[in-house]
Amino acid sequence: MNFKQFLVLIVVSCFLSNAYAKSKDVIKVLNHAKDVPELKKKQGYLMFYVNVDGIAPSIQFSKISTKKTDFILPDERISFTKDYFLDLKNVTKGFYFIPLFAGIYQITRINAPFYDLPYWLPTNKEAKWRFGVEENSINFIGEINIAKERGVNVIDVNLFNRVATYHEQIIKEIALMPQSFPLKTKSGYRDDFFMELGK
Amino acid sequence: MIFSWSLVNKMKKILKKILIITYLCITFISIGHAENTKENLEFFSMPDMTMAKISPNGQYIATIRYQKHKKKVTLINTETLAESLLLNLDGFFKGKATISQLVWIDDQHIAAQLIEVKKGIEDLLNTKKSQRLLVIKMPYLNEKAKVYSVKTKGWLVHPLQEEAGTFLYAKSSIYSKIYKINVNKLAIEGKKLNKLSKIDGGQFKASNEVSDIYGYATRWFIDQEGNPQAVLHFNEKQNLTLSKFDNKKDVKVLKSWPKNNDEHEESGSKTQVKNLIPIEMAGQPNSFYCLDSSEEEHRTVYLVNYDTGNEEVIYEADSFKIIDLVLSPDTHKLISVKVIKNGLIENVFINDEQLQTVQQRSKNTILMSRVSESLARDKAIVYMESHNNPGQFMLQSNHQSEKQIIGERFPSLSNKLPSKLIESIVKVKGLEIPYLLSIPSNEVKTHPLIVMPHGGPVGVHDNRYYNPIVQYLVANDFAVLQVNFRGSSGYSTKLKSAGKNQWGELMLEDIYQATLSVLAHPEIDEHRVCSFGMSYGGYAALMLTLKYPELYKCAANWAGVTDVNLYFQHPRLRKAQHKWIREHVGVIEMESQELKDISPVYLANSLTTPVFIAHGKKDEIVDIEHAFRLKLMLDKFGKSYQWYVDDEGTHSFGKPAQRQNYFSKLTAFINENIH
């Protein structure tokens, strides 16, 4: 291999490694408790309550490059490894599940278009838009709420930490799953409530 | 057969007796029930008279009243005090619309600015508002009042009372303008225009322009004669700007606020700075009454001179968010603030004394405010309120020594609230903590005590004027203690700033010490004490019974914070609010265990007293999760509690029916457990 061929190989390798270092968007499908797919190795179920309104809401989230599954301290720097796209169009109110690899995720963007107006909210830095997933567990992260009403340049979107509010329904819901797993709560910040409740 | 007939007759008689007894029982039960809820209904109903304005010639008073579930404008003759209906407003309202302004244009015309906050996002400036201006012409004899309306979007900025039949109206767009409008050229409300008719009589044209400015104007500042003096508008760079008209042509920028001005870089760290936005022009040159847009909620009115940079606090609202200011047209003195109270816009009247600095204030327990006067100043409307007077509008005339009552906010409570108000202080860690103690004035020797901490907790206070909850509890034979603990506004900077980082610490200590102090009062039953509050007040009520169960025999909260960590992670908190919390409350920096130590949820196991947890499902300030967390923990430890969720409830006690329902349950709970 001469120098020219070597140089071409290096350039091509760099290009490919760069292109694939961060996986392209993965479209995730929502599942009901009774039809959740089996977990793969190192996966856990993400569980949340959907309460969205509007024309075609969707959220984008990314896996954070970390081995943690709880929460990230405010001064820690974060980088993303994999992006996901979750379509919430016509999704009715209720609990949904997605199998995800263990780790911490950041909701990076909420899309809430209104007819021809492309409303969206960048959320890629805020801890309140993070959640964790623990292997072989059901990880309840709260209620994703996208309101239909909006201001001229404002949309009302929230991820409510509501494990107690929905506790009774969560227990009923996970009883419908084909296999049982321990229930955990995984907000983007330290919240010991559920752990203390279970003590 | 004879035997059978007599049996039938006997049976008939017995049946008749049973029916009579049943009827009497039902009647007595319903009378008893009505008596039980009567007081509640009176305290938590809609106010009757909310505004009264006297005509320029002093002959009539226009009032806004709410009677028999109808909003109306009435006319009162100042000589005879005879009242007549001018307009039933119900046909003009949809949804949550309310009258934001009632102004006499001249002796024949009254303008009513209707405002409807359409469903939008709470607390945002661009929540959709729909405004309509109606102009009502006084009827001749038995005629119906004629109602004109302005179709063009905008608002009345000056009534031009000395030019009969005209007023100034502002219209905002890329170029914002003020037009002089003639009432007689407007169309009658509800009447369809024919093809040849122009909207609003085609009056929004260049020849009617009075003033203009480049950019979208949000407020115009007009002098008594109707000359525009300044305008608050967005300039070409979209910066909010206060421009002053030196004469009709020259425009001078007094102040400009860059976009995102809610934070300020200083020595590398971001600190909160005041963002004083002018709301009304004060009587002195270049001076304005302002609200601080960086304040957690607008509760403080500042007087700012943009030339000298001088600023001073001139009024602090007790707890409700100020949305507008109302000035006396001639003296430009602040006479009332408009606040959002239980979801409705209400006027809170201010007396001269409240506008003095804290040190200058005496302890006058009666609020008296001159709200409107005739052009000759010989007649005026005075508003009066005190701790046991829910508010009266009175006519004051130079020809009569005594004021005459023309209407009341709650006529059914007039002279029916015998109670004493005691104002005092208690020293806690070297700081004077003011408190208000309301005691029933009846023959009962001692009264159970309800300790009622206010919400907020910082920048809010309980004042000495009418409070329907306090008076309702007093009418039910309870004494009520309201403590202006450290962090409270309305007294001194020292008291307010002492509240920093004292969320679960000295604020509670202040309330406890004040409670101990009033127990010495001979009319208080020291063995029967219960705590009750809303929001932070609900948190404090729970914490007091957790910390001092031997004193506080029960506790009730509405929308109470139960998990401090959860509260400060609320997704709806804006960045500015987070900064404010970091600076004033400090809990974000606290360790996890410290937060648990001051959170009722994590102290539930040690609860030994009965509690009543109540929350609104639609609360956007303290999420309903707080109530459910406490409920789950109490269930876990097998503690008894009373539970109430209002499906329509927000972060207020809600509409009259919601309030009546909740307070019936509250008094029943307290009566059952305060022993």
SSE topology:
The complex is a heterodimer of chains A (199) and B (675).
Chain A (H helix, E strand, L loop, with lengths): L2 H19 L1 E6 L14 E10 L5 E7 L15 E8 L6 E8 L1 E9 L8 E3 L7 E4 L4 E13 L4 E6 L6 H8 L8 E3 L7 H6 L1
Parallel strand pairs in A: 1-4, 2-9, 9-11
Antiparallel strand pairs in A: 2-5, 3-4, 3-6, 6-7, 6-8, 9-10
Chain B lengths: L1 H42 L5 E6 L5 E8 L2 E8 L5 E6 L9 E7 L4 E9 L11 E9 L8 E5 L4 E4 L7 E6 L3 E8 L4 E2 L20 E6 L2 E6 L5 E7 L5 E6 L5 E7 L6 E3 L2 E3 L4 E6 L5 E6 L7 E6 L5 E6 L4 E7 L6 E8 L2 E6 L17 E7 L5 E8 L2 E9 L6 E5 L10 E10 L2 E10 L6 E5 L16 H8 L3 E5 L9 H5 L8 H14 L4 E11 L1 H12 L6 E5 L5 H5 L6 H10 L7 H6 L13 E6 L8 H12 L4 E6 L9 H18 L2
Parallel strand pairs in B: 33-34, 33-35, 35-36, 36-37, 37-38
Antiparallel strand pairs in B: 1-2, 2-3, 3-4, 5-6, 6-7, 7-8, 8-12, 9-10, 10-11, 11-13, 14-15, 15-16, 16-17, 18-19, 20-21, 21-22, 22-23, 24-25, 25-26, 27-28, 28-29, 29-30, 31-32, 32-34
Q: Which range best describes the helical content of chain A: under 10%, 10-25%, 25-40%, 40-55%, 55-70% or over 70%?
A: 10-25%
Q: How is the main sheet of chain A built?
A: 6 strands, mixed
Helix content of chain B: 10-25%
Radius of gyration of chain A: 19 Å
Order of helices and strands of chain A: HEEEEEEEEEEHEH
Summed up:
The complex is a heterodimer of chains A (199) and B (675). Helix content of chain A is 17%, strand content 39%.
